[in-house]
Amino acid sequence: MSRQALPERLHGCKRPRPVIPCESSPFAAIYRFARRSPPMPASRRTAARRPAVIRSAPDVALAPQPAPSDRARSPRVRPPVSSAILVASITLNLACATERGKAWDLRAAAPAAPAVSLLLLGETGFPGRTAARVAAEVERTLAARRSAGVPVVLLWLGDAIGDSCAPETAWNRPGLVQLANVGRAHQSSGGGSFAVLGVQEWRCGAPELTLRTGAEFNPWRQPAANYVVRVERDGSTAVVSACSNQLCAVDAPGPDTLVDLVFVDTPAWQGPPPLALRAAADASLTQQQALLAALEAAPPQPQVPRLLITHHPIETAGAHGLGGLFPDSAYFLHNEPLRRAIDRGLFAGALSGHDRTLSATADLFDATKRSSRFWLKQPVFQVVSGATARPDGTARGGRRSWVFYQGQALKPDLLTNRPGFAELLVTPDADFTAQLHQRKHGRWRAAQITISRERPPHPMETTSPVMDPCLYCDPQAPPQ
User: Fold this and answer.
1) 435 beta partners
2) Torsion angle of alpha carbons 436, 167, 398, 102, nearest 10°?
3) Going edge to edge, which strands form the sheet with 99-100?
4) Is 122 found in the same domain as 76?
5) With a threshold of 0.85, does the pTM exceed it?
6) Whether 32 and 119 share a structural domain
7) pLDDT, tens only, 286-318
């Protein structure tokens, strides 16, 4: 179907726009160069419109040829195609920096006690200046939280060591050494630091390498592939789950418990791990099923919410979403025991990495409708932090950020693919606050949304968004 034949309205979407991924794409460069090119001389335009000369028929009159003097006076102007192709080759690897949400500010609002900060670091295993800059801002944020009396728990969301499988080598590379120093200094001062396995950890031979702890190895504590960490109101942490012989037990929360963090190994199902590690992956999935069964046997208490910590997001509208460039993160792609636990409301929200963006969604209800065609019974929010070291919005992001390589889930309330990290503030008997920190034009900016702690189940009948994939028809979240 040609563009002229397209209807004005197509399934509630706007008329399709020109297929240009962003201002920095090669297609946009060709378009801009062609518009700025000088007009072709009249003689050349006339020659271009001449009919073909048929030499096999002597009775056919030949088209008039321009005089030699006119041809000599006509300046030789090369068509802009070759230059445009050169511009396109230069701009081929440039990425699109995007930003969604109207609540961005120059500086993040400082929390106050008795809040506890969960600081999220994802996709940290890429060396370079980006990781070093983010490490410096994380260090500054930790110092500011300590001054305000706000405890911080560091959460490493997978793919932390990158393509260098030996931790001794990974943490000595530029950028990563700064991140490791920040994590170890935080641990030495008594702060909590925990990690979940990522795809790269499995490729490197997890859990033998990644589960090792200690100052000379990884700047976190990770006792198992699937486990539960309890955070008290004073910021202290403890592992409260134990699994053996396909059975898991979780300690009951106490009166000072603030939140339970449930770490689940999603790459064991969605990776998939190498053939040599399939037995270890099967053991991780068995442990995951037993842990979720133990949590289902003890429903969450209203005053002690549970948060799901995973490498793969539940849903994402980025490059890893359904229909994106690397489609491996959608609700229906997760393991069945985890899908059942999410649908039954075992978790108030999910904190994930993998997608090289920063985003916050107050409720994934509409996102799972469009992407996975599934209607969740209970509200669940999601915060994605995967822009620590190599986000999609930088020059090395390439086509990952182009608009037609993104997933088809509903766009999140807050989104940026610039470098940075995310933070979730948990306050006793109060709402959650998701805060995104991004570096834009050399300055750090932040945006936040407030997520209600107590929300009723979704009704049986609800209004759905545009269900067909549509690039430009997602509603904008109102500013707070």
Assistant:
1) 423, 448
2) 0
3) 99-100, 414-416, 358-361, 381-385, 349-352, 306-309, 257-263, 227-232, 237-239
4) no
5) no
6) no
7) 999 999 999 999 887 888 999 999 999 999 888
